[in-house]
């Protein structure tokens, strides 16, 4: 087995996939991509309750809270969903080949210029990132959801609801660009459910509108990075990919290849990892190391190398700062007068702007998007809804039975009853509002006494944003004539706990080590201050929230990191 590489990439989300693909083109057959999660082929994502229950991430050797049935045991879960709970903030991240791209909501959105404030170095303002946004947009196939044009399979009720609400609210509202496969011809979408190879050779299915984007697309209709960047890295440039391999430590080596914790990376690095299928520890050597384990994973790994193992002691003391949940906030509008149907279509198709793109106001700039959830969750919600809500169904069923007993046999009685039960479901008249905006990005990631990552999230710093979001939610409720609206229960007093799927910061770009962790100089973009050949390429590079869905910005930053390393300007042909 090969033990010495030109470059090792740790993680396979947007940052790792882009770095892996670009570096593999520069050094074919000499790049290793290491991913802690599993590989998910088409049809490989779980759907049954039993399978979904085992699709979470848990290792008994970690000093973290765990389910009761796992306490004291040896069972390990190497599933896709890694749900972390911290004070005032829960974070959902993904493990699997493709990282967060396996469960993200597909949106490709470039933030406005105003977002790139004084915290962002001049070299990575929006204008400087435009060429990289352009390339990432092409590779990921960003485009709006196609118009129905008479095809009922492409009709999305909630999109129409949000479009109407946006007009009545007199807001900048539009369909968003999404990285979903509708065929290779943008002007003429491939019929729903038909398959064809994408421009890179990977087989995909034209979106079937199943609303299962966030639990892994079994049709490979989602343009996750395992179907473009990683696919090309493996199949064209012979990159080596190891799944279920968890990196635990990075150590500089000297000219003889021996560990040199005081070194600066001039002779490369030894990367220590654990094979999660065999539980064996091993290592590889590399001249370059690109840490792309996500905001939490990259920050935690580098913090441990700095503070626990003392193998990278020269990392800036700014590490862990500028944490942001990107203003993520989830709210619900229940009992809409017309249908909302959040169980059909790509998970997000539309957004309504509140002072982010128009009339920019930093204190409360955010957007509202039309989130959806899988039908299996709708069945769960139906089973759990309060029994009082079944009153009308019970009454109608009794009337049908009465007519049958008194007036003789009445064909279709059971059908009528089932119609009442299923057509009056809770989900169909529920609108899910996924909000995100410019929080204060004032959180701090640090290690506790067990060297496990903790997050200090001062939610009060961003209360102006959250209050405006709740006011907008109530306003949306009135416009769609709904019965009630409320935030995700974790936000209810006194908990005041947010949940984010867009964690950012921790290894912020800066012009010097006193201002951040990674270099913003074009030639060394993303390189860790104090070290040579050690880079970061993921959402942890962001010095603050971007307000919009951050995938586009993460991808653009990763393309720029790769260009600085390889000296090759990126193109969409990969």
Strand content: 15-25%
Largest sheet: 7 strands, mixed
Assign a percent range to the helix content: 10-25%
Please give the number of β-strands: 24
Whole-Å distance between the termini?
Answer: 27 Å
* Discrete helix count: 11
- The low-confidence runs, each spanning 5 or more residues with pLDDT under 50, are none
Q: What class, by secondary structure content?
A: alpha/beta
Cα-atom radius of gyration:
25 Å
**What's the shape?**
globular
Q: Would you tell me the overall average pLDDT?
A: 92
Task: Tell me what you see in this structure.
24% of the residues lie in helices and 20% in strands. By secondary structure, it is α/β, with parallel strands linked by helices. It has eleven helices and 24 strands. α1 (14-26) packs parallel to α5 and α3 (126-140) crosses α11. It is globular and about 90 Å long. Strands 1, 2, 10, 11, 12, 13 and 24 form a seven-stranded mixed β-sheet that branches. Strands 7-15-16-17-14-20 form a six-stranded antiparallel β-sheet, covered by helices on one side.
Chain-wise SSE layout:
Blueprint: E1 4-10, H1 14-26, E2 31-35, H2 49-53, E3 57-58, E4 77-78, E5 81-86, E6 89-94, H3 126-140, H4 157-168, E7 173-175, E8 195-197, E9 203-205, H5 229-235, E10 240-243, E11 245-252, E12 269-275, E13 280-291, H6 294-308, E14 329-334, E15 350-354, E16 366-371, H7 375-384, H8 391-407, H9 413-423, E17 430-437, E18 444-447, E19 453-456, H10 463-479, E20 484-487, E21 498-500, E22 509-510, E23 518-519, E24 534-536, H11 551-566
Parallel strand pairs: 1-2, 1-13, 2-10, 6-21, 13-24, 22-23
Antiparallel strand pairs: 3-4, 5-6, 7-15, 8-9, 11-12, 12-13, 14-17, 14-20, 15-16, 16-17, 18-19
Helix pairs in contact: 1-5, 1-11, 3-11, 8-9
């Amino acid at each position: 087995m090969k033990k010495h590489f030109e470059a090792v990439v740790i993680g396979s989300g947007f940052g790792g996939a882009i770095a892996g693909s670009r570096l593999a083109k520069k050094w074919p057959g000499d790049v290793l991509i290491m991913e802690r999660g599993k590989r998910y082929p088409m049809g490989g994502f779980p759907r049954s309750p039993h399978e979904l229950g085992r699709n979470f991430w848990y290792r008994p050797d970690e000093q973290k809270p765990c389910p009761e049935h796992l306490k004291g045991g040896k069972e390990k879960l190497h599933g896709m969903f890694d749900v972390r709970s911290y004070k005032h903030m829960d974070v959902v991240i993904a493990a699997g080949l493709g990282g967060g791209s396996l469960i993200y909501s597909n949106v490709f959105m470039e933030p406005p210029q105003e977002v790139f404030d004084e915290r962002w170095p001049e070299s990575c303002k929006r204008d400087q990132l435009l060429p990289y946004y352009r390339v990432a947009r092409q590779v990921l196939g960003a485009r709006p959801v196609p118009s129905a044009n008479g095809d009922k399979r492409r009709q999305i009720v909630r999109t129409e609801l949000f479009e109407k609400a946006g007009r009545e609210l007199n807001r900048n509202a539009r369909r968003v660009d999404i990285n979903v496969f509708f065929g290779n011809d943008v002007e003429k979408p491939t019929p729903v459910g038909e398959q064809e190879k994408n421009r890179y050779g990977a087989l995909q299915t034209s979106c079937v509108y199943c609303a299962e984007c966030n639990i892994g697309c079994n049709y490979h209709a989602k343009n996750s990075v395992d179907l473009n960047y990683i696919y090309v890295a493996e199949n064209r440039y012979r990159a080596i990919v190891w799944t279920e391999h968890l990196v635990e430590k990075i150590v500089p080596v000297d000219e003889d290849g021996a560990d040199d914790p005081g070194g600066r990376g001039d002779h490369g690095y030894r990367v220590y990892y654990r094979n999660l299928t065999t539980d064996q520890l091993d290592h590889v050597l590399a001249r370059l190391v690109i840490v792309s384990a996500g905001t939490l994973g990259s920050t935690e790994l580098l913090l441990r190398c700095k503070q626990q193992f003392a193998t990278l002691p020269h990392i800036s003391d700014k590490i862990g700062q500028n944490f942001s949940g990107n203003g993520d906030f989830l709210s619900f509008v229940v009992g809409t007068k017309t249908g909302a149907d959040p169980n059909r279509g790509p998970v997000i198709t539309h957004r309504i702007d509140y002072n982010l793109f128009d009339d920019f106001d930093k204190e409360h700039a955010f957007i509202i998007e039309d989130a959806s959830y899988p039908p299996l969750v709708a069945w769960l919600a139906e089973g759990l809804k309060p029994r009082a809500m079944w009153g009308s169904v019970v009454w109608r069923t009794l009337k049908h039975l009465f007519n049958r007993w008194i007036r003789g046999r009445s064909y279709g009685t059971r059908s009528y009853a089932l119609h009442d039960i299923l057509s009056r479901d809770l989900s169909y008249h529920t609108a899910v509002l996924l909000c995100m905006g410019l929080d204060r990005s004032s959180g701090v990631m640090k290690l506790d006494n067990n060297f496990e990552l903790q997050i200090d999230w001062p939610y009060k710093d961003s209360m102006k944003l959250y209050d405006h979001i709740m006011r907008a939610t109530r306003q949306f409720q009135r416009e769609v004539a709904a019965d009630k609206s409320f935030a995700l229960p974790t936000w209810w007093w006194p908990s005041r706990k947010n949940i984010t799927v867009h964690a950012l910061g921790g290894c912020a770009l800066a012009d010097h080590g006193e201002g951040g962790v990674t270099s913003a100089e074009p030639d060394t973009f993303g390189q860790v201050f104090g070290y040579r050949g050690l880079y970061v390429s993921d959402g942890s590079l962001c010095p603050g929230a971007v307000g919009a869905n951050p995938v586009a910005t993460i991808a653009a930053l990763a393309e720029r990191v790769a260009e600085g390393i390889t000296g090759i300007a990126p193109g969409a042909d990969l």
